Amino acid sequence: MNKEILKKWILFAEADLDAAQRLFKSPHPSQWTYLLILWHCHQTIEKALKMIMIKKEKEIFKIHDLLRLIELSEIKFSKEDFKFIKKLNKYYLKSRYPDLIYKPLSNPDKKITKNYLEKTIDLFLWLKK
Q1: Of 6, 16, 30, 36, which residue is the least packed, with the fewest Cβ within 10 Å?
Q2: DSSP codes, the chain
Q3: How many domains does the chain have?
Q4: How far apart (Å, rounded) are the C-alpha atoms in residues 27 and 114?
Q5: What is the domain-level CATH number for residue 116?
Q6: HSE-up of 90 (CA within 13 Å, CB side)?
Q7: In terms of residue numbers, what domain contains 120?
Q8: CA quadruple 42, 107, 99, 29: dihedral positive or negative?
Q9: Do 19 and 38 meet the contact criterion of CB atoms below 8 Å apart?
Q10: What pLDDT does residue 66 have?
Q11: How many Cα atoms within 13 Å fall on the side-chain side of residue 72?
Q12: pLDDT > 70 in the chain, percent
């Protein structure tokens, strides 16, 4: 295992988590702000799973499907955590341009977004260990 590469992935995941937390503090959030927060939460978990794969010396694939990354990383999650990740998985946005989003998105509010952000923080800290 290359510790320098692993360290870069940790910093990269932490930057996404930091971005999500900063966006959550936005004084005038909109639906798009909440969607971007959830996208950064997705990215945090995606990078954490890839970090695990690096630690296990597995090949990293350029995919964004969290459920497939769980399979590849061989991490065992609780039913509750797996259910959360499955819900978070839908917030990977191939495009951040509103006219190019191909699938209907839910309309997350502050309460839902806060819940997802808190759960992402907990999961990231667990995966980081």
Answers
A1: 30
A2: --HHHHHHHHHHHHHHHHHHHHHHT-SS--HHHHHHHHHHHHHHHHHHHHHHHHHTTPPP-S---HHHHHHHHT----HHHHHHHHHHGGG--S--SGGG--S------HHHHHHHHHHHHHHHHHHH-
A3: 1
A4: 15
A5: 1.20.120.330
A6: 11
A7: 3-128
A8: negative
A9: no
A10: 96
A11: 22
A12: 89
Cα dihedral 34→67→78→6 (10° resolution): -80
One-letter amino acid for residue 4 of the chain: E
Place of tokens 């799973």: 49
pLDDT of residue 31: 87
Instruction: Average the pLDDT over 91-119 and give the result.
Output: 76
The Cα–Cα gap between 64 and 43 comes to 8
Asked if 55 contacts 17 with a C-beta cutoff of 8 angstroms, the reply is no
Question: What is the pLDDT, as a whole number, of residue 73?
Answer: 93
Alpha-carbon span 81 to 44, nearest angstrom: 15
Region 65-70 average pLDDT:
95
The single residue listed with the structure tokens 């819940």 is: 115
